[in-house]
Amino acid sequence: MKTPEQYRESLREMRPNVHKFGELIKDVTSHPATSRVVSGHAQIYAAQHDPQYQDIVTKMSSFSGERVSRYLTLIESMEDMWANSRMKRLMFNLTGTCTGGRCVGWNSTNAMWATTWEIDKERGTKYHENLKSWLVDAQKRDISVCGALTDPKGNRTLPPHKQKDPDMNLHVVEANDKGLVVRGAKVQIAGAAASHEIFVLPGSGYKAEDTSYSVSFVTPKDAKGITIVEARHPSDMRDFEDGWDNPVKCGGITQGYVFFEDVFVPKERVFMNGEWEWTMKNIMSFITPYRSAIGGCVAGQGDLMVGASALLARANGLNEKVFSDKLNKMTINNETTFAVGIAAAARGKMHPSGVWTCDPLLANVNKIHVATLPYETKRLAQEIGGGIAETGCMPSWKDLESPEYGELVKKYMKANSSAETRVKLARLIEWLTLGSGVPGTMHGGGSPDGAGMVIRANSDLEEKIKSVRRLIQIDEEIKVEK
Amino acid sequence: MKTPEQYRESLREMRPNVHKFGELIKDVTSHPATSRVVSGHAQIYAAQHDPQYQDIVTKMSSFSGERVSRYLTLIESMEDMWANSRMKRLMFNLTGTCTGGRCVGWNSTNAMWATTWEIDKERGTKYHENLKSWLVDAQKRDISVCGALTDPKGNRTLPPHKQKDPDMNLHVVEANDKGLVVRGAKVQIAGAAASHEIFVLPGSGYKAEDTSYSVSFVTPKDAKGITIVEARHPSDMRDFEDGWDNPVKCGGITQGYVFFEDVFVPKERVFMNGEWEWTMKNIMSFITPYRSAIGGCVAGQGDLMVGASALLARANGLNEKVFSDKLNKMTINNETTFAVGIAAAARGKMHPSGVWTCDPLLANVNKIHVATLPYETKRLAQEIGGGIAETGCMPSWKDLESPEYGELVKKYMKANSSAETRVKLARLIEWLTLGSGVPGTMHGGGSPDGAGMVIRANSDLEEKIKSVRRLIQIDEEIKVEK
Amino acid sequence: MKTPEQYRESLREMRPNVHKFGELIKDVTSHPATSRVVSGHAQIYAAQHDPQYQDIVTKMSSFSGERVSRYLTLIESMEDMWANSRMKRLMFNLTGTCTGGRCVGWNSTNAMWATTWEIDKERGTKYHENLKSWLVDAQKRDISVCGALTDPKGNRTLPPHKQKDPDMNLHVVEANDKGLVVRGAKVQIAGAAASHEIFVLPGSGYKAEDTSYSVSFVTPKDAKGITIVEARHPSDMRDFEDGWDNPVKCGGITQGYVFFEDVFVPKERVFMNGEWEWTMKNIMSFITPYRSAIGGCVAGQGDLMVGASALLARANGLNEKVFSDKLNKMTINNETTFAVGIAAAARGKMHPSGVWTCDPLLANVNKIHVATLPYETKRLAQEIGGGIAETGCMPSWKDLESPEYGELVKKYMKANSSAETRVKLARLIEWLTLGSGVPGTMHGGGSPDGAGMVIRANSDLEEKIKSVRRLIQIDEEIKVEK
Amino acid sequence: MKTPEQYRESLREMRPNVHKFGELIKDVTSHPATSRVVSGHAQIYAAQHDPQYQDIVTKMSSFSGERVSRYLTLIESMEDMWANSRMKRLMFNLTGTCTGGRCVGWNSTNAMWATTWEIDKERGTKYHENLKSWLVDAQKRDISVCGALTDPKGNRTLPPHKQKDPDMNLHVVEANDKGLVVRGAKVQIAGAAASHEIFVLPGSGYKAEDTSYSVSFVTPKDAKGITIVEARHPSDMRDFEDGWDNPVKCGGITQGYVFFEDVFVPKERVFMNGEWEWTMKNIMSFITPYRSAIGGCVAGQGDLMVGASALLARANGLNEKVFSDKLNKMTINNETTFAVGIAAAARGKMHPSGVWTCDPLLANVNKIHVATLPYETKRLAQEIGGGIAETGCMPSWKDLESPEYGELVKKYMKANSSAETRVKLARLIEWLTLGSGVPGTMHGGGSPDGAGMVIRANSDLEEKIKSVRRLIQIDEEIKVEK
């Protein structure tokens, strides 16, 4: 398993193709726009070698029997799925935010593990073998693999083939003996800048007309024809500043727009090519564990909000017990998203290919929680922290350091702690609630309304009606207009 | 294992000591005040023999290796604890409400299993053996055992020994070679009328001054000196009426006030006598699984609300899809309380005595959910069902049957179904949300504010502060006034 | 203005036609099923003569210049509309529940005041004159007039003329020189039992095909052909009992199903007959002030929940300050529904006929609040009050009075107050939250979803989009599929 | 009344003393850190001359009879207070955010109008005359006056004189014939950069020991000894960029830290000096109208969120009707904060000095709403807008304009509108929910917990208990421990 330095080195060896603010980033490990996301992911590589965390972030490979990064393993049991939630919570605790440059690829791998197994079984293809070979090798190389699901989609009411611009969803433009050529884009790809490879899956359930859009593969991030533009995020110019106005140096998340301009994919890295019949099921295989475990992310970040707001209360001169109902509400929110994910795994079952599947109803219930509860948690962090936490309404680090009037600022920013400590804590709350630490958990992995549709489909309404009929003995048939 | 009829027969053989409305109930199995609670519990006895349910409501005894009622077993694993949640959800589905005359005794047995093991280990007592002997025998007799935790308590700010009236908490008034004599009361005891025995535990954590209050035992319900008065509940006079204004015949719950006037308990049925040091821990052993699994109860009743409101919408002429967001919200509430309980078990661990313990943080988070989410679910059931469901605002069954004007009532109560069906469904929603089907899940097993205290104690605030300090590198010590 | 005794006497003089539980009620003033609703309304008659309340419940008639019941006046200004909210809040404070036997008729009168003015103006009819004559006379007689809007409606997706049974909405079956003959029903009519007359309006907006359903009039409650069956409500059998299990003697509400079997209405009491073009607007004229002022009702009942739960906390031995956040939340809920009603009046305007109209957007926002906030208030009352308040889980009054074991019950029901006081308070919370004191404010005057449609129609979305376009300078036209 | 250009010119004439990012801002009207806040306030000056808005933003002076800025008038009636709410809503519509550089000073003036009247009456001072003279003159000069209430406060549990550093609250350090010398700071002062003068009031209720802290006055912003450092806010570096990543050019808000280093205040500009007995009442006079009208601000910004999210839905290809329940919820939130403010004014009364006072209970209920409801509104705006709106997760303007890959970005950002339109709308939602448009309405003018205390004090608990006692006839006295 790589060390953090080996990880950084390996990133530096790649062709630079990540951009932000109109410019090419020559070295993602040192450029301020990407150094934090790399540092966050580097912490995973460090944790692999740290006895305190090793059991969470690594696992014995069922291929090699060696200890490998958990992000490159199969989720083979309920316990593995729990480890997913726990690892996510841990990484948010350690980095303050998302390390999606490994976990989404992991999730994609597991989804496609089941899908390729099914396709091969029915169609006699070799996708599953391809995937296995790649994975065995990836374990050896200990690479970071981001996952790329979301297409630009264009007009949301039209399927891919009805879009004016056929590239609004990624598709195969050529296929030959050696492999495929693909065109399109995948957008909002977490941690692309910190990854070595990109795992691509179809972004929706498709119909026969969208055969060419039904494609899955893995590609080096720096393959020819791939251009990445990182999205900007709130307050991201602070990443370029000295001082603590972005107080988190050891973590950060980026969301890349990955453009594929006729990118070649060798056939042994292809996991689906045209089998649209599996795209909907594959989406479910992707989102179900994803929406289960994302509660760990939200809980992990919420833990920091609890800690930061309580400590800032103290810095303001107040015992945090004054806020104990509010802190409890935050804790309840955190634990709820974590727990529903644990339960979704517990109520899951084994797929014949050997990966564990979570309960779709509970997974999607959790998606709704993840899209709502953190907002209340953030609000409470701002409420407990006071006016300076609410919007980070304080002079900048440069002002505190001003030779002219910095002393004035420090004099009046102090309270029951130094100005520095108080300001840093308030900046952390700003970063977590209004700044670049805010992850996109509401729409990431699909919208709450999409989750609602899955809930409806899995809520067994007719079974519940049957219970009612039995309980109070109603036999009358009741028909309604569709 | 008993059949429903054997169960009923065994209840009829007991000394009548249950009262309601100022009168002694001679036969609890047929008296309208108690026949529903007996019918509800009888369904458990029926399910034991029903292949469809047997695996949920029974288990192989680890004492005898025989199949016995799950309510008389130890909870020996995470899976057993999950079965607890599932069984509760099932029984609410089948009876419409609580069957607490078995589950609380079960919960008490398991709590005292751990407590007696610890006391014996440290004090050399024989409580654990007493408990085991009783339990082995109880399995054979297949009895229903209610659990009795809650004392009247008097003035809530005073401990037992400071109360003006020393009997406000149940206590030992005499102890001798043969056993104990106890005085006091246990109140709001679910399903006492449907039970054979009563399992008594201390109602709070006590100090040395309250030694005589630290007592646990099991007693036949009809022991000399025990008088039971059943609480009335909303709309309970309908239990005495013909027709469907209480539309549920096969279930119902009662809450008994159990008075102990110098009741003798033979020593082999005593499980604690004076060991106040264990009372607080025992309370935790009681409430933790209780608060985990109660999410199953709430979910099970919520299932019926989903079914009833959707079916009533159809009876009103509306496709329930009009209400799909509301039905989804109900489902989310149901599944959340269920899931957090599953997770509390999943995050639990084994007690050295051999019973599984749940995670106290998640268990108490669930208690808060159980005290809030069902209120929203009820509101939504009333909203979907319409005006007749909101408060059951319809003529009575007698009016529908009136020879004089019943036809008029029926004419105008019909919609997209017969009047009868529509009215029954609305009455069911009334029963579930404002009537005698409403279980006391908010305060049952302790108040939400009590749960809040456990959450606070288990929320690891200092650990979270430590993560924050590490993340943004703050070393300054910050002290605040207590 | 009548005294309470004159009011009762006048009710006794009417033909008995109110039924409940299959029986005719001979004297509504003394029969236990209706005596409470009469007592509640009698308090209005008492308040008219009480200097403390006179300015709220009476007003100088703009017809006669005499002091008359406010319930028989026009709402001629913003201040009159505020008095509406305040009077409702007061009456809930005094009676514990709704006195809809006067306020809905009042609301109907004012709606039809505007509607008849408009119809007459355009059609040359004499409806407005009819209404005025009747109202002048009603002021003199100081009668209680209930309002009857809601039709049985049958299948909710079909208009009146498409129903299999044409009587599912009230309609004219014959019209001649002397007047009309009507058939159908009006249901869930608040306080019908306590009223002298019934003010009937069309229940929905109708189209040309439903001309005969577009009818409004006022009729003596005991007119030939009118049969009233009172709906049962939660725990209503307690109205027939001695003691305090229904602790409120001086108030209560009933909801009558009023059946019209070919009832004759003399032409001078007809206010609309076939003018379907005004039915939708009339509905709006009805619901707008209704939904504004109903916030006063909800606040008035919420006041009692605040008082009862705080006092019960004390009776339990707890200083209510322990619950101050919860009490504050209850207060916020109460004041919000009250305030939004005040604002709806403040943002209203004068109708050319001389009655004040409220802002439809705010009125319907309040309807949503009224359908949600009280549920939280009730939950909190139950939480503060403790287990005995949650479901009224206590022995009955008969048990407390039992010569055999009543002392035992009393001994254990006492706390920091006598058993009697504590039980009465808990019974009041039960009555308010799960019992016959619960008014139907969620669906009364229309459903929340109906309110949502009015909100949408009045939310000026295009205006808001225009502000956005201006703010960030967007000119591009954007079209979407309907 | 000034024109926008005269306003800008007058600001340019002042001594530069506003800083940000460690630097002095030479011209606040053109420097990117402050030009937006000046533009926002300039829109008020424009509106004064615009027939469409004139009646809202101006009023006839009761001193001169001339039309003057409403921000420089007395609030002499309920209608004036309503105009306050409406003007705030309008200005948020026009500028996207707060124009606190006028409204807080206005609020301060009105509070001190009542306070000076009372002090003068009892103490024979001349404060009221001072205030009037200044105000008459201010009307003529048509100046912008920010209000400065909040002190740095230091340790929140200690009063001013107990702080280690006595300057943590602003205080008088010298008083003589000519005036006062003051030292300390006022922090988070909205719109200081856009103002001509600063109106200072005591920040809390003080006791006798804090006499020297009980001081109120008005001072030119550029008085000798005043140094202003503007707080940074989320994403504020975008203010320095070209393009639309901050899409709002015509509005913006700043929050200044205003340091007073021995600033001289001539005696005729002093409105309080040592009269600590009035400080608490003055705080109430300040916060009551402030907390009433702030609902207009929140509603005005919420209007834009409704418009922006609906329009972005269309740009995404979706009819906004898909989101109609969510849009309705946003509207309900907006209208509720607006309405409760209107009601607080309606339920107010006249102060003998001639200014209208609002109802303190409703005003503080609104403060709680303002601290909670907008968070849900923001969440919903992000939900409707989709992933790009949630965190502004899109390439920057520079990337869209990149000659190298800008076309790629535009190709994939387009949907049912051009990329530009879609991105701008998403950036607006980011700006409103996570960016520099977020106003500090939760803590601005005091914390929600502070509002809770006022609610408690004004909730008339004993009166409500009295109603309960009367309703169910309870006479027993019940005492509890404090």
Supply the CATH architecture of the largest domain in chain A.
Answer: Beta Barrel
User: How many discrete structural domains of chain A?
Assistant: 2
User: First CA to last CA of chain A: what distance?
Assistant: 58 Å
For this structure, the CATH topology of the largest domain in chain A is Butyryl-CoA Dehydrogenase, subunit A, domain 2
Percent helix of chain A: 40-55%
Largest interface, counted with CB-CB under 8 A?
A-D, 81 and 82 residues
CATH class bucket of the largest domain in chain A: Mainly Beta
Whole-number average pLDDT of chain A? 98
The radius of gyration computed from the alpha-carbon positions of chain A, rounded to a whole number of angstroms, is 24 Å
Structural class of chain A: alpha+beta
Oligomer: homotetramer
What is the number of helical segments of chain A per DSSP (H or I, 4+ residues)? 16
Into which percentage range does the β-strand content of chain A fall?
A: 5-15%
Q: Mind describing the biggest β-sheet of chain A?
A: 6 strands, mixed
Pick out the low-confidence regions of chain A.
none
